[in-house]
Specification:
With 365 residues, the protein is α/β, with parallel strands linked by helices. The chain is built from ten helices and twelve strands. The model has no long low-confidence stretch (mean pLDDT 92).
């Protein structure tokens, strides 16, 4: 049903863009329908196939980048056309003004979205936790998505931002890599410059690339990889979960886990202590019920990107119980970061690429 609605929407969007462009240009719309349709299909194919090894080739990589940028332009062009059309209904103006407005608004919005996506910002978050006897400053990184659009330069910028905050501990909650392109030890070398211990759990894109390979590269870069493990550091119990679904009844059709474990079955095995603040790291913000029942105090996740760009920002609020920001669930605090990179389209409108600085403070009785 969801996929049928999605493709129906695409069909209407292609028809609308083709018709309005034909009206502007004074031509028949057939070839425009075909052109817009082909551009959408190529963009979607590139976006959902670019984790594959074949896209890392010398020809496939630039084509993947090109088609993703093309799809990003179309994502912006559609609402711009609608907006200008609505204004045109109220205040009619010439085709020349209509076309110029569409081009100018699309270009400015795209430029902003591309630059904004590549410009991570510090986000300060304060969380009160029981069983702490002092404040702990931590940093969360997630969804960096090194690959076709982000590489060593972007990671170096993030490392410099993290080190500038002087945290005691760093949490990296998955999707460090997104494709075989840029999947090598040199790209991850900036991680060796982190000045605080960094704990890593994998995400769905890490599993698409090769979870075992990504984890080994992370270990070589100095990260402490947690494979369904619990460790104590800096007055915290840190539990790291592999990427998995919440329970045996969960449907994860977009990012199906490639393993049999579930959060419901794994959390009781983690030995959550009552005398120390516990932080659970998992890529996707699912299974909060089971994490709370196990006795954890803080759940850190990413995965959603907060929707990344409008109007997906609105859709994501309905798709995910916990989409972005800080949530309170009885005795469990949940923070979902929008991430430091992008998926598919290198575009952010309505969200920020963030480096999350967590001020963990003792809860007042």
């Amino acid at each position: 049903m969801i996929f049928a609605a999605f493709f129906a929407f695409l069909g209407v969007a292609v028809w609308y863009l083709g018709s309005r462009t034909a009206w502007l240009a004074g031509v028949r719309p057939l070839w425009l329908y075909l052109g817009y349709g082909a551009a959408v299909l190529l963009g979607l194919t590139a976006m959902f196939a670019y984790s594959g090894e074949f896209t890392a080739g010398p020809v496939a990589h630039p084509l993947t980048v090109l088609f993703c940028y093309l799809l990003a332009i179309l994502v912006i062009l559609l609402p711009v056309f609608v907006l200008v059309d609505l204004v045109h209904l109220v205040l009619p103006f010439s085709k020349g003004v209509f076309g110029a407005a569409v081009v100018l608004l699309t270009a400015c919005t795209a430029g902003y979205g591309f630059i904004h996506a590549a410009s991570p910002r510090i986000k300060e978050v304060t969380v009160d936790l029981p069983h702490l006897d002092r404040e702990i400053k931590a940093v969360q990184l997630t969804d960096i998505h090194l690959g076709h659009f982000r590489g060593k330069k972007h990671l170096r910028k993030l490392v410099e931002m993290v080190n500038g905050e002087d945290p005691e501990v760093i949490f990296i909650t998955g999707d460090l890599l997104e494709s075989r392109f840029n999947c090598n030890g040199d790209v991850l070398s900036p991680l060796r410059q982190l000045k605080a211990p960094a704990f890593f759990v994998d995400g769905n894109h890490d599993t698409y690339v090769d979870a075992a390979l990504v984890k080994e590269m992370c270990r070589d870069a100095g990260l402490k990889v947690l494979d369904n493990e619990s460790v104590e550091y800096a007055g915290l119990q840190i539990v790291g979960l592999d990427y998995m679904v919440a329970d045996s009844g969960s449907a994860d059709t977009m990012h199906a886990a490639r393993r049999q474990e579930t959060i419901a079955g794994t959390m009781p095995l983690m030995g959550i202590a009552d005398s120390i603040a516990t932080v659970v790291l998992h890529h996707s913000p699912v299974g909060a019920r089971y994490i709370e029942e196990a006795g954890a105090d803080l759940f850190l996740a990413g995965h959603t990107h907060g929707g990344q760009f409008f109007p997906l920002t609105l859709i994501n609020d309905r798709l995910f119980e916990y989409n972005r920001g800080l949530y309170h669930r009885d005795s469990l605090e949940i923070y979902v970061s929008c991430g430091s990179g992008t998926f598919g389209l290198p575009l952010r409108i309505g969200t920020d690429s963030e480096v999350t600085v967590l001020h963990l403070k003792p809860a007042l009785d």
